[in-house]
Amino acid sequence: MKKKDLETLEKRLLEERQKRVAEIKHLDETVLNQNLKDSSGDLSSYSFHMADMGSDATERERAFLTASAEGRALLDVDEALRRLYRDEYGVCESCGEDIALKRLEAVPQAKLCLDCKSREEKAGRRP
Length: 127
Known about the structure:
Mean pLDDT: 85
Low-confidence stretches: none
Distance between the termini: 25 Å
Radius of gyration: 20 Å
Strand content: under 5%
Structural class: mainly alpha
Order of helices and strands: HHHHH
Shape: flat
């Protein structure tokens, strides 16, 4: 792969990393870090309205799931950057063939070539 292509992909990965970190930080500073007292706006930490308690719990759970997904995506980006810095980037982890530049441009953190990824999806396995 050309040095210019690698530099472009590195820049995209670093931007993606920054975006994921910012999203996780935002979730942590808002919904995930609220306690019941803060979320209800009440002086007591006990909500008298069951619907409010359920809404608060649902919102926190949704934020937790989003943060978890963002964390996994951040790990994928970090792994891609590690591979790039070790000169292992762009090689399929399954078959050892080069991953097409078009695929890396679309999904810079890709670990598998398109054929291996298709086989994985058809087999119903999750990454």
